[in-house]
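The instructor's notes for this session suggest beginning with a concrete chain rather than abstract definitions. Hand out the sequence below and ask the class to guess, before any prediction is shown, which regions might be ordered.
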Amino acid sequence: YETHQWRDFPEGAKFIQIDISPEEIGKNWMPDVGIVGDARLVLRQLIDAIQSGSKSGKDFREMSRVKEILKAKEGFRKEVEAECMVEETPIPAKRAVYELSHIFGRNTILVSENGSQDCWSYCWPYYEVQDGSECVPVAEQTCMGMGVVGAIAAKLTRPEKNVVCVTGDGAFQMYMKELPTAAQYQAGCTWLVLNNSALGWVKHHQMTAAGWNTSTFQVQPDFVKWAEACQCFGRRVQKAADIKPALEEALKANKEGMPAVIDVAVGLDMLHFQRAA
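After discussion, reveal the predicted structure:
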């Protein structure tokens, strides 16, 4: 699933797979080397091994191959920025997520949600988790709404952190009734609602299979008014240029203990894996 039928494997390269679950090794690709272990620990051990095995004794970052990779990575970041920072209506979902990543930045916990928005919210390079372990994934396709309520729990557990949940309008509607709970306990977290007026995954599969769909929402709640009724901050964004100030206002409200809802009118973007196909 994670590889999305990836075909750009370098000729002659060796494939190393690291996973904490042994049953995952070789499930999609057969690796040359399978390593069972915590990825963070194993990667550190690999770096140490590369460092100690260097004949020159130089830092591995000084190796020509590593420099090539870092240069390519920086070039890719610039491509992504140019791709995201466009002025389009409706707003591309990746623009909203990209702006969120830069405004909330470090010291932020990302709580993921289910739905088609997850193709953008926790897929690098659009949102970049800058602090090692500060991401709460939805595991293996958990029920919708887990992220919406999970953000409250994350903030109460780690009050010193910024907490944000990126959610679609479908999942948000299922659990937006918990906004008063967040307000009551001053759980200053932010919900970034990527609102395409549809159940995105359902619509995608219906359109792919049959060429028509029944999953759009003809009647849509006013999320801003709902947020305000629950003593939370709310802002509707319909222009790309308004994303940054809205997120900055949300972050300011969070610092004061007020939850925030940013409702962004996004288009029915192609799914993330289609970009790489």
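Then share the key points. The chain has a mean pLDDT of 86. The longest strand covers residues 162-168.
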